[in-house]
Amino acid sequence: MIPLRQFFFAILLVLLPLFWGCARTEDVPPRARQGVIDLSAWDFDTSGSVDLSGEWEFYWQQLLSPEDFRRADPPPYSAFLSLPNTWHHLKPEGTVLSRRGYATFRLNVLSGTPSRELALHLGNIRSAYRIWVNNKLLVENGTVGRTVAEEIPGLSVQQVKLPAESHQLEVVLQITNYHYRDGGVISAIRIGPADTLHATQLRKWGTALFYTGSLLVMGLYHIVLYFFRRKDITPLYFGIYCMLWMAFFLVSHSGGLVINLFTGQMPMWLFNRIDLIIVVLSVPVGYGFFCALYPGECCRFLQKAAWLMALGFTALGIFASTFTFTSAMPLYFLFSIVMIGCSLSLLFRAVQRGREGAVFILAGFVFLGYAGINDMLYNMQLIDSISLIHIGMFIFVLFQAFALSLRFSNAFFAVERLSGELSDKNAVMEAEIAERNRLEREIVHVAEEARRRISHELHDGLCQQLTGARLRCLVLERKPAEAEEIRADLMQLGSLLEESVNQAYDLSRGLWPLEPEADNVVRSLEALVFKLSQSSGITIDFSREGDCQQCTHAGMDKLCRIAQEAITNAVKHAQASRIVVTLRCQNNRQVMLTVQDNGVGITATAGIRGGLGMSIMSHRARVIGGTLSVAGAEGGGTLVTCIVPCPADSLEV
How confident is the model at residue 40 (pLDDT cuts 50, 70, 90)? Predict the structure, then answer.
């Protein structure tokens, strides 16, 4: 698990810029008092722009123009409403105002003598409005109307230049609201140098596009990552989560600028629905990401409840009116705050249990959760703040990148460790295989040596003794005739001894087909072929090709065994009338032994030839480094071929 000091160090790195921003000292801006704000002492060159915050004259259910205030009996104001604010918080004469309706706001601005051209910046006003400055209509956003049918909300981000010849400005604002939850001016109207306000707005749009691009890259990256490894659904959840917030920033934080560049003028009510539906869907997707990442800490019931809640509000956003949908959103905001708490609890449990990357995910979600709660409370007009969701989302994505890097690093480390272990095991296995092959060769050598020893003992011992006994019988046969009965018995005994000698010699040759001295392979093969031909009654021819006069190859005993097994198989199973054995030395590089018969062929005898004898032949060929092949011969029959490499020191030309 990541040490806690690294966790707190990461938190500190993120908080330092925020602390630095909060520590900066700025001039206290003036506020409007009873419909008048004095900016004559405000230095726009050094202090920049300022909000027209404070008490505006408020005229409820009246759409007034500047001419109405020039009459002899100007209309009385209903109250002073401190902006930015919604009018349903105001209770003039104890009457609670409706969220729907229309009103007029009026403010006198004492601007002094600014050295630069001033402008007004109007931000998040989700209604239709018109604004006059010094009797001149400067902005008409949407269509102002006294009923739902008459009003058409428009995009609220507007910036207009102010008349330069006047030191006093009269600002009259008509506003109607029949579609959004809150009526009034939610964000402050700002006044300042036109170039400064324009640069500020460009920075806001650039920042929104920066966050949008970051989320687009991260979203696409995780979605593509999922398609490469579909067993893990975690990247898909996070990719969809990033794409949802990317769409939210395009619609909300950029004021619809980017969307309208491609789609034309999109109606404000559609913007309101899209950004709120995105917020609704982001909650179950985000919690689903945590559940997929740490399933052991997830509450499945809560996950299902989040999806049901989101689908219900999505259907409400699609089919209900904008006013109904936006009015119901505070309920979903409260549910989202509960989900944020549950997600934090899930991540805390994951950290306590040492889940991979849980520390980074928790650190990032702390910022995102705080930003989300701040924005929801600010949207419900419960706190005075600014939108922080874009900062929180960026930090969360950053920490998710840290967690993903940690996961990949651990995966690569595991692969390297497993590769090292596999290499070690392969080396051990190769050594074991080499040792087993050595032992197999040693066993074969011991077995062949035992055969050779027994063969020599039979040849030099038992065969010689039997031969002596037979000779002794022959001597006794030549004794005088009076021993005629004994002579007949001796002749019978001599025949038995002769037969025993022949059988002993045959047994000796069968155990060890080479000559006892083993210094001439050709002579040994010729003798083997001759004996097998005599015993089987089948014509077996032997031929030799090559320049070698004598071969001392260490594996020739195995080669003779292969020839013996191949001839025996042909005699027993092939029904052949002729067998040809050839020993060929090819360019002093290799020795090739062939045994060809004219029998029934390999197909008819495949089951027999593929038995133990064939396995023994193949094994002997491998032991001496050779290759064995069995195929059909031209004109019928079977051809057995064994090719053995021949070291130079085994050849005598």
Answer: confident
Q: What is the mean pLDDT of residues 201-222?
A: 86
In angstroms, the CA 86 to CA 463 distance is: 126
DSSP 3-state of 637:
coil
Burial group, residue 395, by CB count within 10 angstroms (0-12, 13-18, 19+): buried
What totals of helices (H) and strands (E) does the chain contain, helices first?
16, 20
Q: In what order do the strands lie in the sheet with 158-161?
A: 50-51, 190-193, 118-122, 158-161
Indicate whether 354 belongs to any domain. yes
162, 267: one domain: no
Contact, 620 vs 582, CB < 8 A? no
pLDDT of residue 260: 61
Residue 250: DSSP 8-state: I
| CA 307 to chain CA centroid, nearest Å | 26
Convert the pLDDT of each residue in 83-139 to its tens digit: 888 898 787 776 788 889 999 999 999 887 777 788 898 877 778 999 999 999 998
Q: Which domain holds residue 360?
A: 199-407
**Does residue 15 fall inside a structural domain?**
no
Structural domain count of the chain? 4
Query: Do 395 and 414 belong to one domain?
Result: no
Q: Is the pTM of this model over 0.70?
A: no
Measured CA distances, 568 to 540, 576, 609 (Å)? 11, 11, 11
Q: Are residues 240 and 316 in the same domain?
A: yes
Q: Which residue has the higher pLDDT, 647 or 549?
A: 647
Q: Assess whether 256 and 140 both reside in one domain.
A: no
